[in-house]
Each structure stands twice: as C-alpha cells, then as structure tokens.
Amino acid sequence: MPFQIEQLDNWLRPNVRHMQAYSSARSEYKGSASIWLDANENPFGKVFHRYPDPLQQKVKTRLAELKFVQSQQLFLGNGSDEVLDLVMRAFCVPGKDAAISCPPTYGMYRVLAELNDVELREVPLDDDFDLDVEGILAKADEHCKLLFLCSPNNPTGNAFKVERVRRLLGEFSGLVLIDEAYIEFAEQDSFVSCLEEFPNLIISQTLSKAWGLAGLRLGMAIAHTKIVEVLNRIKPPYNISRVNQEAALEKLKKEVQVAKEVAQIRVQRQLLKNALQELPFVRKVYPSDANFLLVKVWRPEELYDYLLEEGIVIRLRHRLAGCKDSVRFSIGSPAENERLVQALRQYGSIKAAAQSPH
Ligand SMILES: *Cc1c(COP(=O)(O)O)cnc(C)c1O
C-alpha cells in the first residue's frame, strides 16, 4: 500500500493514532489575560518564571520566512535528534516494523532504531558513496515504514544525486526522511521544494551546523502539515526552552552574516582540500558538500595520535564499513586550518625522514 496523506492514520503506530496530546495550561487558554494562575509558576520570578510557548510560534514564523514554507509545515525539536526520534516513534511499531539506512552514514539512525526496538535494514552506499536505489527498493516491504537519507551525507560529505533521491521518493512505499543537517554548505538545493509533490517526504534541518548554534539544541522537521500535527501531539509539551527560543530568534535575524560565514567555510574547504592533496600520506580527499572533509590516509590512528599531541582533535572514521583508513576533518577558522596544515606538513616530513635510507 503506497503512502497517501489522506490515509496518514493507517501509517501511524496504533497507540499514537488514538493518543491525545498532553493539554498544557498555556495551550488550553485562548484570549487575552494579565494574571496567570494556571500553571503553578512562581509569581515572584522576573525572567524565566513562565513556561515557554509550547508551539514556538515566533521562531516558526521567522523560520517559515527563511525556508519559504508555511509555519504549520514546521516542527521544532530539541536538536534534530529529537525530531528523528519522534518520527520513528510516530510511525514504527517496536518489535514489528523496520527502517532502512544507507551506511556509511550518521550513527544516530542506528542508535534510535535500537532504542525504539525497530529493525534497521542497511543498504550500503555504492563505490561513489551514492544511493543504491535498486538495493533499497529490494529491501522494502510492508513493515518498512521509514527510509533515512542523509544528504549531504555524514561522514562521506557528498550530496546524493537528485534523480536517485527523486526515484526513491516516488517508489519507496513508506516515509522518506532526508536529513539535511549540512544543506547550507551544498551546491544543490534543499528538497523542501519537493514537499508538495511527495507528501511522504520529511526533511530535517538544524541550527547546529551552518547557523552556529550547536550548544543551543534546535532542530526542525519540514513536512506536510498533517505530519507536523502528529509530531506536535506526541512531543514533550515544552521541548524548546524559553532561552532557546529567544536566542534562536536573535540569531535568525543574522542571515546575512551566516551566509558570509558559510561562504568563507566553503572557501576554506577548498583551500584545505588543496593542501591535503599535496601531502605524501594522503591517499584520497573525497568531494564534499558539507563543512568537513573525509580523507583516506596511511595509518589513520598514528596520524590521529600525532595531531592530538599537537592539540588538534579530528574524527577517526576508519572503523566504519566503506571508510577504511579514513579520518574526518571539520573545517575550522582560517587560523585553525592553517595550524592544522602546518602540523600535517610536519608529520609528513617526519614520516619521510623515517623512511629515507640515510
Ligand atoms: C550534526 C548532525 C545533525 C544535527 O543534530 P542536532 O541534534 O540538530 O545537533 C543531524 N544529522 C546529521 C547527519 C548530523 O551530522
């Protein structure tokens, strides 16, 4: 049975289908008032004594402007990890349903599947780290409710070919969640423009990467309003704190500054790539649409230890299937990248000296 938004109820976990949202004091009240005796708050507080807006209307209004969607198409989570968890809990019956992911990819899909007792079927990416469309469709059956696609993908860095994603949106029988945590750094556009054509599409984005608010914890789903309604029904009532909402709103005014930073990071990505390709122990720098580079080297652990002694932390990815001998470098500030390249060159010359016969 292919997904139809009119039959959304049939796709929900039965307990979720029948569930009523927690009715919070603030969402029951309508009208204007000046005395708040409904939520057991401390009346003597000055700043954070009131509960925050459970539906984060101000933040959503601003985000809707930035993303060219209606605010009713937005759901906010305490980081996109909360969004992914709620999507899985809304649609997958524990011990019965399944989801698909395409490794090497973001580790949270497996963690969430395990936490929710949902079978995760893995269909590895091909040799170019792109989607194996036939392989995915072959693994899909009526229990397979959810497909996770991460584009640009972490840790490989590439965005998937649009045609392959579109084929999956059309032919996969369940919901497709495209994790666009790194979309701001990519050449290609967000799949937000496909939401109308494909009601089974859920996009997740975050303020943790390009927007520079990893410490704040704000992620979002962009989806059909009916899907957003379900997520609103099952979320913790006050999942986005008042501090978080206010700080996010301030930062979301600074789109021009953020766009400049993203442009700078993309320039730095190219410079770092050029420098890495000159190094004797670097075997391959993979193409990147994100704010990091996946790099295949000789002896990744030795390199990691060396950099650590220089006070530089990178991410070992060499144990992931498909990422043999690889490490991941986040793109830092120009000064940080310069320090990294300096340390890498030094490591290269130590290695060369150790190998020379004299
Ligand atoms: C960093 C990252 C996220 C962001 O998670 P938050 O919880 O929003 O910080 C989501 N997906 C991928 C693939 C990531 O790499």
Helical residue percent band:
25-40%
Order of strands in the sheet with most strands: 1-7-6-5-4-2-3
DSSP summary, beta strand count: 11
Ions, cofactors and other ligands present here are: pyridoxal-5'-phosphate
How would you describe this structure to a colleague?
The chain is α/β, with parallel strands linked by helices and 358 residues long. The chain contains 13 helices and 11 strands. The chain has helices at 8-11, 14-17, 25-28, 57-67, 80-91, 108-115, 133-139, 162-171, 225-234, 242-251, 255-277, 300-309, 334-355, and strands at 74-77, 98-101, 119-122, 144-150, 175-179, 201-206, 219-222, 282-285, 292-297, 315-316, 326-330. The strands form 2 sheets. It has a 7-stranded mixed beta sheet, with helices on both faces. Helix 5 (80-91) crosses helix 6 (108-115) and helix 11 (255-277) packs parallel to helix 13 (334-355). Bound molecules: pyridoxal-5'-phosphate. Pyridoxal-5'-phosphate (PLP) binds next to helix 5. Pyridoxal-5'-phosphate (PLP) binds at residues 79-81, 106, 150, 154, 179, 181, 206, 208-209, 214, 219.
